[in-house]
Amino acid sequence: MQTPHMNLADPILRGTGTPVRDVLERALEGRELTRADAVVLLGAQGRDLQVLCSIADLARAEDVGDEVSYVVNRNINFTNICYVGCSFCGFARHKHDEDAYDRGLDDIVARAREAWDLGASEVCIQGGIHPNKDGFWYREIIEAIKTELPDMHIHAFSPEEIHFGVEKSGGMSLHAYLKMLREAGLGTIPGTAAEILDDEIRRKLSPRKLMSGRWLEIVRAAHEVGLRSSSTLMYGHIESVEHIARHLELLRDLQKQTGGFTEFVPLGFIHHQTRLYLEQGSRPGASMPEDLRLVAVARLFLRPWIQNVQVSWVKMGWKMAQMGLLSGANDFGGTLMEESISQAAGSEHGDHIEVHEIEQLVREIGRPSYERTTTYGRREPRSDAATRPELAPSATPPIGFALGSGY
After folding, report:
1. Per-residue pLDDT for 343 more than 70?
2. Smallest Cα–Cα separation from 265: which of 218, 241, 290, 299?
3. Are 27 and 106 part of one and the same domain?
4. Are 189 and 174 in contact (CB under 8 A)?
5. Alpha carbon separation from 76 to 73, 110, 124 (Å, rounded)
6. Average pLDDT over residues 42-70
7. Mean pLDDT, residues 382-404 taken together
8. Contact 250, 179 (CB under 8 A)
9. What is the extent of the structural domain holding 279?
């Protein structure tokens, strides 16, 4: 592993507390950090936190350089009808609720077509767990989009959705089901529905949702059939730093075995409209130090196995996203165009961002930027793509009704 140059790091480390300094020096030497090391770093405060972020930024520069990547994409949430009952979710509705919706294929394809015409290379598709759908509905979505837009990358269906699809498929194995989706045109899967990979925590967050072992089994199987995925973690609720460290270790261990993760995305809990906060007394989302610590620790703990660390501007806001890019992250995420997930839980940071706004935010911190593909290749903007205007409000339900915090 390459390590940040000691002549740059030595002045930064001066004055750092001994436990944090010891861990950072091991990181600088190229040693793989332990779970206990991650716990130490996740407790960094004050000067120690500043040093942690600076060292992570040096590591980022050596791992992936100075360029900040982003993807031009659109989120499509095809239904908010869901009966899983996650306490952190502000999105789910029962089918008879006034604001419940279930988009048909024509609507989904029209949204994908609009995104393509505006320059998108990817649609990210997720939705509620609709009890009346069978296991082949997800395939129908993929086939409908690919028929209209054969070159659009489809990044779709969380492990929770895949688990549901397998259960409703009439007896298909997990690997066979994933191969069917891949052959239909599925490109990659989002590593959402992870929350915290600790079953004690998961039973409190959502006792009816898949447990940690099943999440890992599904993601491993996806990687084995040639479907790469992102990886995520939801923080700022009822978890401890020990839970976060264990989650990161599980991701790193799986990446060593499969190499299938494209990036890591820390997702701060959006609390405002959730039962977990309003009724169950969780923390009110992540603090600024938590945001920066997690980005920095992810950079140092996951390297060299997962090289891309993304900031979620929807969760963090634009200015905190800039700070994340100065603390070990190298990817700004996507344009989204519409975002029905964090908004339902009360996010105040909007649901889309223009390419020129991303590029301006990156320039403000003195870094270059480039458009990427879903799997982190470089992409040249298409000459036939329209310049995207500010999108008018869509048929998506208004802010306050969307998949909770996007997990």
Report:
1. no
2. 299
3. no
4. no
5. 10, 11, 6
6. 96
7. 43
8. no
9. 66-371
